[in-house]
């Protein structure tokens, strides 16, 4: 059977530019694993403050194989993470890069993000099948590194903004927490957000709920280590069955968009919140249109939506909002859930912070 083949004219300059982008993306994808390796083996920490260093010196400092370290350093220099001096054949980690790669207390810290991405990518076969069938994948069925990486990714931003700017942006909440309030942190994960609040507001009591038992165990350990276990209680519970009522503040930190049925969760919150209570909703920074997500942040969050958040919503019996849900969609969830007031209280380059009131 004869087949007509359409003759296409290809713009060589355009395809060359595209292939250049592809090569860059392949290099970035492969190098993500090397950043995680550098984090786990303490390679960046060993370079910080060491000055110009050779592969042999770095290997000795970290008890690792020089053969691997040589190529790891070449990759890091090609990536622009470390700098190479051809005259001395030595590498150096710039101070600014060191802060971002090693200081987990800094708002500039990025190490957790690489752990999130590489952990999520291990589930690619399951996600591919979910996309084909319309199924899903629960958070708990991902590689365990996803949970640790998520905590490490979000904690620096919470530490830098939660008590100092996000809480003050809510109407009357700062004063309540200072005097003594009761707070529910729903979907608390490892409890970083709960513990940060407890440290900032010693007169208030905090309850962290999550349906993932290993995360609650880790949260309890963290509370003990932080010295706030007397004011923080962590329990295994879902967003629609956690105990208690008359909460002055209910918080959803980067989790509402993962839920299979966020409207039902919000309806439950409307029945457990105090009459003059507040809901704090922290969501990823997303645009209100497709064009609003066509940027580096939107690229990351849309990928996370496909790999992590939307699959959890689908596996939980719904469709979920997904990581790039709009403010309009989030507002509609709260209006349907029984709240009458909803507004964007503040934002950062990576987060939108909303307030809802009964």
Blueprint (SSEs and pairs):
Elements lengths: L11 H29 L2 H5 L7 H8 L3 H14 L3 E3 L4 E3 L2 H8 L8 H11 L2 H10 L11 H22 L6 H7 L2 E5 L5 H9 L4 E6 L2 H14 L5 E5 L10 E7 L8 H11 E12 L11 H20 L11 H10 L4 E7 L3 E7 L1
Parallel strand pairs: 3-4, 3-6, 4-5, 6-7
Antiparallel strand pairs: 1-2, 7-9, 8-9
Helix pairs in contact: 1-4, 1-6, 3-4, 6-8, 8-10
How many separate structural domains? 2
- First-last Cα distance: 69 Å
Number of helices: 14
**What is the quaternary state of this protein?**
single chain
Q: Could you please say which CATH topology of the largest domain applies here?
A: Rossmann fold
- Structural class by SSE content: alpha/beta
- Unreliable parts: none
Number of strands: 9
What is the averaged pLDDT score? 95
Shape: globular
CATH superfamily of the largest domain: Vaccinia Virus protein VP39
- Strand portion, in percent? 15-25%
Reading the helices and strands in chain order gives HHHHEEHHHHHEHEHEEHEHHEE
What is the CA-atom radius of gyration, in angstroms?
A: 23 Å
Q: Summarize the amount of helix as a percent range.
A: 40-55%
* Strand order of the biggest β-sheet: 5-4-3-6-7-9-8
CATH architecture grouping of the largest domain: 3-Layer(aba) Sandwich
What is the C-level CATH assignment of the largest domain? Alpha Beta
Biggest sheet architecture: 7 strands, mixed
